[in-house]
Amino acid sequence: MVAANRSPSTDMLANQLASDPSDAPGRAAENHAARRAALACMVTLAVALGIGRFAFTPLLPLMLHGSAYGQPQIDIQHGGWLASFNYAGYFVGALACAALRRVDAAHMVRAGLVLTVLLTLAMGVTSQFWVWALVRFIAGAVSAWTFVFASQWGLRRLHELGAHGWGGVIYTGPGVGIAGTGLLVSAAGGFGPTVGWIGFGLIAAVLSAVVWSVFGGASGGGAVNASPRPGSVAHAGTQQAAPQHAATQHAATQRATTQRATTQHAATPHAATQHAATQHATTHPLSTRVPHRADAFWLVLLYGVPGFGYIITATFLPVIARHALPGSSWPDLFWPMFGLALIVGALLAARLPLHWDNRTLLAGCYILQAVGIALGIVWPTAGGFSLGSILIGLPFTAITLFAMREARHLRGDHAAGLMGYATAAYGIGQIIGPLVAAPIAGHTGSFSLALWLAAGALLLGAVGLIAVAHWPHGRSRMPDCGCS
Asked: What is the Cα–Cα distance from 351 to 395, expressed in whole angstroms?
């Protein structure tokens, strides 16, 4: 890679501009704009993912006993089908983002918020299974594109404002939504699933109204009118704010998707190379390893593993816990614990050094989730489920971050295609998980076998990532996956 040389005079000018007292009001306004954008995107992800996608998890136990509330009831296999329809929708939505990438991001975010509200309400006012299946499928697609375009809009906004530190806040949104829906079901679950769906739809409407205006003033994929901070444009060349089209349950941060371009050829503006810099402009360099053709293939293949690994727990955790701890109040709290751990993990992962190998970090995340799943099987107590929920939630967003960062390393500003293929693989794993788990639970009366399969898959995935990370250069003989 080529890095632009910065002279001492350039550095001095950058420092002077960044520390000019007369610019203090401008910096304050930009900090306010950055905080407003980050919080709006956080709320958007809380609505689209925490409510639109994952509210199903705490409501599923109520739906399995709907007749007790005088409301529609389903069995565990139909619950698994509804989950898989949703994940299939997410898969289709992730692929559709490639075709929609020229659409204005702010408009897509607004459309996603409106549809999330309507689809959540629809779950509460209908009772036919085929209608529910269709609604959950569409909701999955909507959550995928809302995640992608909210990420694109928010990351670009923060990049142009030079406020990279707020990026991690965006990806706490799913955790906030998961924790919030879990706690609300725990407190008001006695009203039944119908009231739960309608209530979440109304909450989504209120939250959407709060952030609606934030997405009204920017267009062009998130371009902003505010001038970037002087200190953020002191490079020798023009910075490139390429939006990233990545959909994931759980999310990537701005340090994975807004690495700065530091040199630009006059005749070919898209030939800018990525500079090894962090948000603090420290001396921590990015990895200097040379990408190989096969790396993209292994990334796509192995990123699908955690989709299968975590989704069984993420779909059936309250059901599993209630079966293991009958009569206890603890089962309703494990899902909020998962969400709170996700928030912490999103903030911590964004602060890890960029030069650490993403594949090794992914392997560590897979192992954490495998241990968390196993704890719920071998130690089916309040303590085991609590610790297990935390270990599964902590790396949830970090997995997306490291995978998208690896895609950026392999494809640079043209990583959108690879990100889409990787996300599709993750989506396939999510679809398969409930389809495997629900029949096993229906026949054996337990999720233990399905959970062991999930934990084993994660461990195999970790081994694969470690092997690829230490594979000799001869691996370049492997065929290119064409994921560009």
From this structure: 13
Residue with tokens 């996956």: 481
Number of neighbours of residue 5 by Cβ within 10 angstroms: 9
Q: Which of 455, 438, 460 is nearest to 447 (CA)?
A: 438
Type of residue numbered 442: G
Q: Which residues are bridge partners to 263 per DSSP?
A: 273
User: pTM above the 0.90 mark?
Assistant: no
Contact in structure between 387 and 335 (CB atoms under 8 Å): no
| Residue 17 CA: distances (Å) to CA of 27, 144, 228, 263, 443 | 11, 40, 12, 20, 68
Amino acid at 422: A
Q: 57 lies in a domain?
A: yes
Whether residue 24 is contained in a domain is answered as no
13 assigned to some structural domain: no
Write the DSSP symbol of residue 395: T
338-379 per-position pLDDT tens digit: 999 999 998 898 888 888 999 999 999 999 999 999 999 999
Distance CA 128, CA 150 (A): 32
Instruction: Report yes or no: 195 and 93 within 8 Å, Cβ to Cβ.
Output: no
Confidence of residue 276 (pLDDT cuts 50, 70, 90): very low
Q: Which residues of 253-282 are buried (b: 16+ CB within 10 A; e: fewer)?
A: bbbbbbbbbbbbeeeeeeebbbbbbbbeee
The helix/strand/coil state of 229 is: coil
Mean pLDDT of 133-155: 92
Exposure b/e, 306-336, CB count within 10 A at least 16 = b: bbbbbbbbbbbbbbbbbbbbeeeebbbbbbb
Helix, strand or coil, per DSSP, at residue 50 = helix
Give me the number of domains the chain comprises: 1
Token pair in block for residue 248: 């994931």
pLDDT tens digits along 238-275 = 333 333 334 444 434 434 433 333 333 333 333 333 33
- d(CA 448, CA 436) in angstroms, rounded, equals 12
At residue 483, the pLDDT reads: 57
Task: Dump pLDDT digits (tens) for 318-334.
Answer: 999 998 999 888 998 99
Q: How far apart are CA 86 and CA 93, in angstroms?
A: 10
Contact 148, 246 (CB under 8 A): yes
List the CATH number of the domain containing 197: 1.20.1250.20
- Half-sphere CA count of 384, side-chain side, radius 13 A: 15
Q: Look at residue 28 in the predicted model and tell me its pLDDT.
A: 81
Residue 10 covered by a domain = no
Parent domain of 307: 36-221+241-260+273-477
Task: For residue 13, give both structure tokens.
Answer: 């000018």
The answer to whether 91 and 216 are in contact (CB under 8 A) is no
Give the Cα separation of 197 and 195 in Å (integer): 6
- The whole-angstrom separation of Cα 338 and Cα 399 is 15
